[in-house]
């Protein structure tokens, strides 16, 4: 008799439990991951790094560490990296020097390169995430160089590209700040006998910005600009690897 009453009750409640389970699963699926702790955006290349094979015997891998200048290079002159399979681009648009330092373990050291090109400073100067001094920018670069020494990686430091104005920060007058930063990086490289990759000199115009025919917005190179950068980059890499 009890079973007779129990079966209809189970039939009535089963859909309710099923719906509750479905709603619970739906809520779990719609919860977004909180990446606020990943300030340096380590997840940007995390998956790609896992699929990257270790360097082949005799391979002289070079990592390009920087922000949008390097990230855009892959799309505006893709043939450059296609022709140099040992060149690994790890640029992330908008990043400042301390973010590059945080990424150094994952996006440089773990990839086991022979050399790394460190292009840092412009977004710091632009005040993208706050105002800092050349000393602070250089401190982050120094820390990356020290990591290179521990892991037998050849650091290649860069004199930054000339910038007369940031389209998103008009009136900032960055030209002299870029020159000042480049002087500090050049002096540090000379004192420590490091390779300096000069992106400034072959691109600059008479207004201390990048020549109009070589840039899309006064900050980022176009294909013609990247072709010039490619030439001086290859020379600096060759010098570093043969040093």
Describe the overall structure:
The protein is α/β, with parallel strands linked by helices. Strands 2-1-3-4-5 form a five-stranded parallel β-sheet, sandwiched between helices. Helix 5 (97-107) runs parallel beside helix 7 and helix 7 runs parallel beside helix 8 (175-191). It is built from nine helices and five strands. The chain has one domain: SGNH hydrolase (Rossmann fold), CATH 3.40.50. The longest helix has 29 residues, at 2-30. The mean pLDDT is 90. 50% of the residues lie in helices and 10% in strands.
Question: In a few lines, what is going on in this structure?
Answer:
The protein is an alpha/beta fold and 243 residues long. The protein has one domain: Rossmann fold, CATH 3.40.50. The chain is built from nine helices and five strands.
Question: Which properties best describe this structure?
Answer:
Rossmann fold, 50% helix, 243 residues, globular, alpha/beta, 5-stranded parallel sheet
Output the number of helix runs.
9
Query: Roughly what fraction of the amino acids lie in strands?
Result: 5-15%
Spatial order of strands in the largest sheet: 2-1-3-4-5
CATH topology: Rossmann fold
Rg calc: 25 Å
What spatial form do the alpha-carbon principal axes imply? globular
* Percent in helix: 40-55%
Number of domains: 1
Kindly state the number of beta strands: 5
Mean pLDDT: 90
CATH superfamily name? SGNH hydrolase
State the distance separating the first and last CA atoms. 93 Å
**Series of H and E elements:** HHEHHEHEHHEHEH
Structural class: alpha/beta
Text of the CATH class = Alpha Beta
CATH architecture title = 3-Layer(aba) Sandwich
Q: Unreliable runs, pLDDT <50, ≥5 residues?
A: none
Question: Main beta sheet, described?
Answer: 5 strands, parallel
